[in-house]
Amino acid sequence: MLLTSTYFVGNITAEAANPAVYGPYYSTFTGSKLKSAPTGTLGDKCEKAVIRYGASISNSKSYTCRWYQQIERRVTTTIGTVIKVTYYPSYGGGR
Predict the structure, then answer these.
(1) pTM of the model
(2) pLDDT digit string (tens) for 41-92?
(3) Residue 72 and residue 92: Cα distance in Å, rounded?
């Protein structure tokens, strides 16, 4: 029976590893879009990242945020979540 656990561990492929993280991705929003973004959306998370950075949001400026997507596959569903949303002026925008 000791062989069973070794067998299963040995047969796990990178594709089967759960959850998988993809990115980074970059998305650009105007300040007015950030301010009006619904709660929980990428725009909302980017707005919070800009504020955490310490920048003030101007309606006429553009802000680029970096983010990653986490995909978790289950038996009957696949769940995608936006994670690690950060803002830094060198990403672009904010000018």
Answers:
(1) 0.73
(2) 999 999 999 999 999 999 999 999 999 999 988 888 888 899 999 998 887 6
(3) 30
